[in-house]
């Protein structure tokens, strides 16, 4: 029965963790875009985003990561033979990369606080796609284990995911270009 408790809270933990990571980088984007606002809005927004980032990271994202890792250790302790399976090694590599991403977000948060962040909002939008890719890979490995499908259906699903990501990026680019066009247009008299 312990296995099911560990598994249930492992799932809850990673849902919370990913939700935090997705929203955290979105806040970074807004934080960077606040620099384009006139005062006093700029200062007010930056202060608010900084507070939201700290709370999100400390109250949601970190605990989500800790619960995920603790419950994974619990799962492995109930079935230690799983450590001999190749799919788990690949999944753990993605998890290590995700932990690195998590800590890199903390670094970006500190840079934003000090006004030293060199990332543009467009670059941060790209960075925000990284946990999505890791989530897909981790879930696919957890579900299919060593039997990851390589048939046409799997490739169609993969292509749809890539198309969605590309569409999101193209839409963001269109919005940015439209905004630039509006700013450069000269009002006619």
UniProtKB/TrEMBL annotation:
One of its GO terms (biological process) is protoporphyrinogen IX biosynthetic process. Coiled coil: none annotated. Its EC number is 1.3.99.-. GO terms for molecular function: metal ion binding; protoporphyrinogen oxidase activity. InterPro entries: HemJ-like (IPR005265). It comes from the Bacteria. Pathway: Porphyrin-containing compound metabolism; protoporphyrin-IX biosynthesis; protoporphyrin-IX from protoporphyrinogen-IX: step 1/1. Keywords: Cell membrane, Heme, Iron, Membrane, Metal-binding, Oxidoreductase, Transmembrane, Transmembrane helix. It is found in: Cell membrane. Heme binds at residues 10, 91. Pfam families: UPF0093 (PF03653). It catalyses: protoporphyrinogen IX + 3 A = protoporphyrin IX + 3 AH2. Binds 1 heme b (iron(II)-protoporphyrin IX) group per subunit. The chain crosses the membrane at residues 6-29, 56-76, 88-105, 126-146, 152-172. The keyword Heme applies. It is a multi-pass membrane protein. Its cofactor is heme b. GO terms for cellular component: plasma membrane. The keyword Heme applies. Homodimer. Catalyzes the oxidation of protoporphyrinogen IX to protoporphyrin IX. NCBIfam families: protoporphyrinogen oxidase HemJ. This is Protoporphyrinogen IX oxidase. It comes from Aliterella atlantica CENA595. The lineage of its organism: Bacteria, Bacillati, Cyanobacteriota, Cyanophyceae, Chroococcidiopsidales.
């Amino acid at each position: 029965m312990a296995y099911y408790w560990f598994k249930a809270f492992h799932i809850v933990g990673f849902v919370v963790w990913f939700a935090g990571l997705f929203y955290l980088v979105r806040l970074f984007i807004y934080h960077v875009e606040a620099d384009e606002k006139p005062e006093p809005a700029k200062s007010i927004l930056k202060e608010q985003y900084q507070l939201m980032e700290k709370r999100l990271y400390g109250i949601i994202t970190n605990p989500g990561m800790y619960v995920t890792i603790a419950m994974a250790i619990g799962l492995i302790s109930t079935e230690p033979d799983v450590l001999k399976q190749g799919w788990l090694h690949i999944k753990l590599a993605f998890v290590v990369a995700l932990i690195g991403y998590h800590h890199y977000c903390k670094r970006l948060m500190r840079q934003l606080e000090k006004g030293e962040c060199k990332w543009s909002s467009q670059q941060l939008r790209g960075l925000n796609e990284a946990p999505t890719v890791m989530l897909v890979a981790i879930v696919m490995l957890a579900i299919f284990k060593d039997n990851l499908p390589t048939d046409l259906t799997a490739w169609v699903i993969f292509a749809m995911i890539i198309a969605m990501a590309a569409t999101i990026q193209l839409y963001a680019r269109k919005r940015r270009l439209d905004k630039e066009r509006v700013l450069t247009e000269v009002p006619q008299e």
